[in-house]
Amino acid sequence: MTELPDIESLQLLVLVGEHRSLTTAAAQVGTTQPAASKRISALERRLGVRLLDRSRTGSTLTPDGRLICSWAERVIENVNLLVEGVNALRRERTAQLSLAASLTVAEHLLPTWIGELRRQVPDLHVGLQVLNSTRVCELVRNGEIDLGFIESPRRLRRLRSQIVARDRLVLVVAPGHRWARRRTPVDAAELAATPLISRESGSGTRDTVEQALLATGLTPVEPLLELGSTTAVRSSVATGAGPALLSELVVASDLAAGNLREVATSGVDLHRTLRAVWHTGAAPSGAAAELLALASRAGAGPRTTSVRRTQSERDRG
């Protein structure tokens, strides 16, 4: 029985047929002419057929070589189809549901929602990117994900949205901070004038703070520290670096343990909505629609608004 040839040797043979030159074919596959000649010789021994006529002027395919070359082209084409098909299956398997979410939603809400969805659809594979709200909206607009989750109050452009939960920002300090024993609330004016430890520009939490203060006619001063994650902000506050406004979801355990202290505020509304977002031209379907329904049910009652109302909202990112 004839030993099966390797794909690399067949590819080299096809290139010799195309270029009518072993040297050129060798260069195409990144090898030397002597190495290519040895590979073709090995292929001839394996098949028991002479494939090339070699002379001082070059190498050309024999009649048998031309016939085998035509068969080899079909084999290589089918191998390429096989590889493309496998890659398509892998892409489909690993990206059945593509999501992006801001940090608060990704860390405190999505794990429960995704867990429940996977109990309903055991074979579902979910891809999740954790980004700030601005980047989530960009991915949705570009069609790179099926569904996004944001916490920013900004108006949405070319996006539809639905409220899936409500949240509140709380002013927190370390137990040793001078505000920890404060008996009077921090009003909007004092809050706006106080440098806070803050997330980066584009973060939903920072947007919420800025919009809330602007609604009172005040502009916040520059942050004391600008950090790239909620965890970094929380840790900095705990070390006594300064105050911060953080999600109630994020700091609940720290407040219960006494690692942080909440400071009352007045004159500014720090409540916010957490929303699912999708492109205006592509309503959620399949697993994305199931996740959206599940998230909405989880925040049912007074914590959600109707789809009709929220779909009319424009980019609050």
Automatic annotation (TrEMBL):
Record-linked SUPFAM superfamilies: Periplasmic binding protein-like II (SSF53850), Winged helix' DNA-binding domain (SSF46785)
Superkingdom of origin organism: Bacteria
Transmembrane portions of the chain: none
GO molecular function annotation: DNA-binding transcription factor activity; transcription cis-regulatory region binding
Residue ranges of domain HTH lysR-type in the record: 5-62
Family per record: Belongs to the LysR transcriptional regulatory family.
Gene source species: Prauserella sediminis
UniProt name for this protein: DNA-binding transcriptional LysR family regulator
Keyword terms, alphabetized: DNA-binding, Transcription, Transcription regulation
